[in-house]
Specification:
This protein is of the alpha+beta class and about 190 residues long. It contains 5 helices and 14 strands. Strands 3-6-9-10-11-12 form a 6-stranded mixed β-sheet, sandwiched between helices. A 4-stranded mixed β-sheet has the order 5-4-8-7, with no helix packed on it. It starts with 9 loop residues before the first helix and ends with a helix.
Length: about 190
């Protein structure tokens, strides 16, 4: 008896992994399937406090929202998408649904990643992918190297070199985001 085998597309493999690994974040970056483990307590608390900072800064009154873990459709390759830890988006972002719970990059004003065990994705492929997608502001809380990086205003699909911020400093959120909350490096790194 002949057995027909179906070779999975990258998108199908991502869907299978998402169902098989609840709590993990499955993304396709530059044609490569990546899986991130669930957040640890400090990582989750950093994002909670980040949301509070944007609330205090008046994000809703400025006509925007912040969200955690929604898909960002990446235009470089047909199946590419990322699921940023935290994003500031236009309030009508739901009108920009592309597919698979991913939204068009033009509704994203800021993206934040807090590194975990696969920190190199946040410092490599995501920098390139977010710049190609035209994400105006990308902040990386780099727990591996104990600093925060600020990328902004990509030109021709590339960010200039990032600004580096150390413990005891604050990260200035560019006015293009719509609000300018005070973001402590220590809070972004540790959730404290």
């Amino acid at each position: 008896m002949a057995v027909l085998q179906h070779e999975l597309t990258l998108g199908e493999a991502a869907d299978l992994l998402s169902r098989a690994l609840p709590g993990h974040r499955v993304e396709i970056l530059q044609g490569r399937l990546t899986v991130t483990p669930p957040r640890d307590g400090s990582h989750a608390l950093s994002l909670t406090k980040l949301g509070r900072a944007f609330d205090r800064a008046g994000i809703v009154e400025a006509g925007h929202e912040y969200v955690q873990g929604i898909g960002l459709w990446l235009p470089a390759l047909p199946d590419d998408y990322a699921i940023p830890d935290f994003s500031v988006v236009d309030e009508d972002f739901r009108d920009a649904l592309v597919q698979k719970n991913c939204y068009a990059p033009n509704v994203f004003r800021l993206v934040v990643e807090v590194t975990s065990s696969n920190w190199s994705d946040d410092l490599g492929p995501k920098v390139e992918s977010y710049a190609e997608a035209g994400i105006p502001v990308y902040i990386v809380a780099d727990r591996k190297h104990d600093e925060v990086l600020l990328y902004q205003n990509p030109v021709d699909g590339k960010y200039d070199a990032p600004q580096h911020f150390k413990r005891g400093q604050s990260v200035p959120v560019p006015e293009s985001v719509g609000v300018t909350p005070d973001l402590s490096v220590d809070t972004l790194l540790d959730g404290d």
